[in-house]
Structure formats: C-alpha cells, structure tokens
Amino acid sequence: MLLDQRRIGILEIIERKGFASLCELANEVDASQSTIRRDLEHLERSGQVRRTRGGAAYVGESLTGFEERRHLAADEKHAIAKAVVRLISPQETIILDGGTTTLEVAKLLSGLGLQVVTNSLPVVNHLVGSSDTEVVFLGGYLYPKTGVALGELTIESLKRVHARRLIMSVGGITEEGLFNTNSLLAETERQMMESADEIIVVTDSSKLGHSELVCLGPLSKVDRIVVDEKISNEWRQKIVDQGIELTIA
Questions:
Q1: What are phi and psi of 55, to 5 degrees?
Q2: How far apart are CA 159 and CA 138, in angstroms?
Q3: CB-side exposure of 57: number of CA atoms within 13 Å?
Q4: pTM reported for the whole predicted model
Q5: Which residues are paired to 173 by β-bridges?
Q6: Cα 234 vs. chain centroid, distance in angstroms?
C-alpha cells in the first residue's frame, strides 16, 4: 500500500472509531506495528490524532475529505436515506446539512416537489438538475474540505428561513447530546436546528456512544433519529427513554 493511501486509511479508521489500537490498525491496513507508529507520529505532528499507550485517538476536524467519507458505511447510509425519504411529505420545505448521509437523502428526493434549503455545494450540485425541486443555497464562507457554507453570512441567512424539517448528520451521539467533528460548523448547525419545526438526525450506529470535538446541543432538541439496523438494544432503549422517535433502516 502506498504511503499516502495507508495514512488516509489509518485516519479513516481512527475517525470512525474514535480510538484504534496499534494491533487494529496494523491488521486493517496490512502493515507492521513499527510502520503504524511512524505513521501515527506523522499524523500527530499534523494535529490530526493524539497518540496514547497502545494506539491513537481522533482529535481532528473532518480528517478525511468529503469524497473519502462518502464511502464509509456506504450501505448503512443508503438504507438510512431511503427510510428518511419515506418520512417526508410532498411540497415541504426542508433543510439539509452538509453530511454524506444527507447527500444520499438528496439523491432520492425527485418527484416530491420540495423546497430544499442547504449549505452544501454537493447537495446543490445534485439537485440543480431536478425540475421539480426548488433549491435555496445558503451563502457564506465555503469550507473547502467539505464544500459547505458556514459563518456569519450563513447564519444570518438561516435566521430568515422557516422549514418543516431539518435533516442533519452528526459526528457522534451520547446521552449528553449531539456532537460534530468540525468546530467551524457548530454555530451554523445550531442555527439550522432553530430554523426547523422538526429535527431528524441521521447517523450510522457506529457513532452512538461516541462524543466528538464540539457539542451541538442536548438530545432533547431532537425529534427523531434514523439509524441502521446494527444499533444495540441498549441504545434503542436510551433513545426511547429520551422521548425521541426511533426509525431503524
């Protein structure tokens, strides 16, 4: 495996799990533990991971690019997207954030006659050719790693928006709340939550029980969570106990 390819692979594993051991990483990318140690030293110097005894923890923001992250848990994201679309009624106004799962949702919206508000350039690029979808793109600073608009201009635009539903992705969920890996996006996503009547969180089950860099808000703000069938019984009960609707794709 080429050096850059191996390091991207290591980043994806640590980003997904939050923490990965040397043994796990060596097995996943088919390299020796001494090679993994050198890679982790490099990644720690760049501020993307923190080495710990026996492995490394994720501390970065959006470690992998949008295109790379699209392929993580791809089957789960597609199943989740299909389940979400069944919850949307024709002619609604919805907000889509810039996550890879919400892009999968966007791909399935044709025929519903929706008004879609988004800060995601990948979502806009997909929907712009749809004859029955009205797209409202939120302006602001375009963050190059993910292709999403953020910052004060985006937030001010969102304050003028009222949507039936927000469909948003997250970097992690614990009993304390919702988390995102990108501190720059936090204020924008909080305003999205204020601009919608109903908040639907889409996430693959690997993110349940994991916190990330920034807390977006308490679980009490969420109306529904849509997750893949690998969710544990423990987390099914935790979500129900919070009074949140649960849809399992």
A1: 175, -150
A2: 11
A3: 8
A4: 0.73
A5: 178, 208
A6: 22
